[in-house]
Amino acid sequence: AGAETVKRAVQLDAATRFQESLVCYQEGIDLLLQVVKATTDEAKKHRYRQKISEYMTRAEDIKKHIEKEKEDGKYHKQIRIEENATGFGYEKLFHEYLTEIVSEVWVQDPYIRQVHQASRYSLYNFLRFCEMLVKAPCKVKTIHLLTSYDVGSGRSQQLSVLEEIKQSLSNYGVTLNIDFSSSIHDREIRFNNGWMIKIGRGLDYFKKPQGHFSIGYCDFDLRPCHETTVDVFHTKHTKKM
């Protein structure tokens, strides 16, 4: 398993998919270290250690390259979330970009409106996102939400829920500014440290839970996902037209 994982790392490395390659190198190295511990043949141990040393050096080089790209604002990371995949809670996606200087967040999503629908829990998802920001090591003071009005009788419920979230956030010293637009279609999240995350489905990439007491109802890391793509950019490397 270790050899196969490292082989995959080398392939991704050659394809310049450095972020994915780094993960595979790290996993492969851990697996090979376990093999070394279980091996009694000293000659084999020596060969494994040589290979592990080579892979560790390459992994460290890739890590430095990624950090340099982040500093220069040239970093672009793409995450493909597969259908029914788990382990993609908001902390998983956003944590590394919520540095200590983040104090302001912009959320643009036209569908932060349905409480109950066949597969959408958008307002609950937005609340969960806000909870993640409140718990984050940074000190978020302001959240800007740009969304669209719900249609028909759903509008009053939408406004009521958003007002409740706004009041609750104020108890934690966070101001929620809410604006509505009938023409927005794009979905993106921006932090005032320059990072911008675009998710194909916005915050609503989780599947409906099986029940109110099913695993994954509260912990989004355990909730199956819809297939979607996440793109991470830095504004220093984006051109405005």
Account of the 3D structure:
It is a single chain. This protein has 241 residues and is an alpha/beta fold. The chain is 42% helix and 16% strand. It contains six helices and seven strands. Helix 6 links the parallel strand 3 (142-147) and strand 4. The protein is elongated, with a radius of gyration of 21 Å.
Q: Which characteristics define this entry?
A:
seven-stranded mixed β-sheet; 42% helix; 7 strands; single chain; Endonuclease, Chain A; MIT_domain_contain_protein1; Methane Monooxygenase Hydroxylase, Chain G, domain 1; alpha/beta; 6 helices; 241 residues; 16% strand; 2 domains
Helix and strand string, N-terminal first? HHHEHEHEHEEEE
The strand line-up of the biggest sheet is 1-7-6-5-2-3-4
SS-based structural class?
alpha/beta
Span of the ends, CA to CA: 47 Å
Q: Under CATH, the topology of the largest domain is which?
A: Endonuclease, Chain A
Mean pLDDT: 87
CATH class call of the largest domain: Alpha Beta
Shape: elongated
Give the CATH H-level superfamily of the largest domain.
MITD, C-terminal phospholipase D-like domain
Which stretches of 5+ consecutive residues score pLDDT under 50?
A: none
Instruction: Give the quaternary arrangement of the chains.
Output: single chain
Task: Tell me the number of helical segments per DSSP (H or I, 4 or more residues long).
Answer: 6
**Percent of residues in helical segments?**
40-55%
- Provide the number of structural domains: 2
Radius of gyration: 21 Å
Largest sheet: 7 strands, mixed
* CATH level-two architecture of the largest domain: 2-Layer Sandwich
